[in-house]
Amino acid sequence: MDSRFFTCSVSDCDNPSVRTGGCNICQRYLCATHVSPPFHTCDQTLDDKAYVAQIVAEINRLRSQINDMAVCRLVTSLSGKTCTIQHSDKVGQGALMGGSNYHARVLFGDGSSPWLLRVPRVASYEVGLPESLVEHLVRSEYATLTFLENTKVPAPRAYGYGIRGRDKEDHGVGVSFLLMEHLPGEAWTGEGTREQKAKVLSGLASILNEVAQHPFTKAGSLVPHASTLSRVSAVASDRFLALTHDGPFDDAESYYASFAEQYLALICGRQLYTEYPVDAYLVYRFLKDNVSQLASRDANGSGEFFLKHVDDKGDHILIDENFNITGIIDWEMARTVPRSEAFGPSLVTADMNDLCAGKVCLTENDQILARELGKLSPQLADCSVDEKARRFFWGLALEPDWADAKPLAVAILTVFGVDQRWEEWREHALKRYGGDGRLQRLLRGCS
Ligand SMILES: [Zn+2]
Ligand SMILES: [Zn+2]
């Protein structure tokens, strides 16, 4: 069977579902055929009230799977203290629900600092996390936090984890989960004066410099390991959670190529970019052919990899009222990556509007972070040369419509050195890749 997250929920349909394309309204996973009218007609444009109702319903579905007593038993065995679990179905500001995880507070009878119970959003059809990926993400985040405990990176302490249905790792909680420290601080929104932003980025530079003191020999994601606490294993998906775990990798080129190849296979298998498969295929084929442009940036330091947060949009940074960093959270997609990717321009210093609009540029924040890194290590400042890695991983951003994806495709071509209009490049690319069997099949499917 092909690699799939879910099989289409329509009876008698054996197609893989479109990744991250499940519908919370009719509560189904749908394949490329059945995701659109006339087979699927749910109106996805929700007003605020309907959106809140949908999230509350999801939280209730998830809560019905969580055995609070089993959580408390485990917490008591780990801490020696009695506790209660405080759930919340708040949506919006102050909510404990993140993009891919639900959280509940673990409150202790003696009033000591609460813990967090962190549970991947397996009850959301839209988030669409298959069990196999959830297992890897939970194990990987636990191992990453365990690793960080022995560094100066401020991250929550991990107290335990559980994997549903896995003998020694199950704990009877009913879902896969992580138990962790609840760090103080507010998520950084990127707001603030120039000085305040510079202060956060200066704090971040110190943290990145600490990360640079801990090189790895492979690219991948950490998983728990008996004797060494953690080891590098397969990459835990990408930040869109659209990929299956793959790897680990000994060199930068095969690491980057595996991402592009997974996208190519998923486009051909009608699991991603089902509305514009030929254009998406051409873009990822181009990226796969150009991974040496990414890998060659680390020619001097090849074979060295460093832990990268990956989902680093800014709200992963917790700050106090004086803009001091109190912690870095949400490590489930972390992976060890080549030096230039680890310390070069990433999402935290991107202008998200420009990124999504396809504007190619190093931002003011990119430059501030590079300057702060330069004060600590010239080698780290040198990583801030171009946007290639940021554009490579932002890709076509799972945009459902070509109109929104096209500026991203053009930006990718630009940053990788193509000086042609899209239409012109596309025509040449169709000729250049004319012998590619998968492309031929896609073209036949579209005719
Ligand atoms: Zn639906
Ligand atoms: Zn179907």
UniProtKB/TrEMBL annotation:
SUPFAM superfamilies: AN1-like Zinc finger (SSF118310), Protein kinase-like (PK-like) (SSF56112). Residues 105-340 form the Aminoglycoside phosphotransferase domain. It comes from the Eukaryota. It holds the Pfam family APH. InterPro entries: AGP_Transferase, Aminoglycoside_PTrfase, AN1-like_Znf, Kinase-like_dom_sf. This is Aminoglycoside phosphotransferase domain-containing protein. It comes from Bionectria ochroleuca.
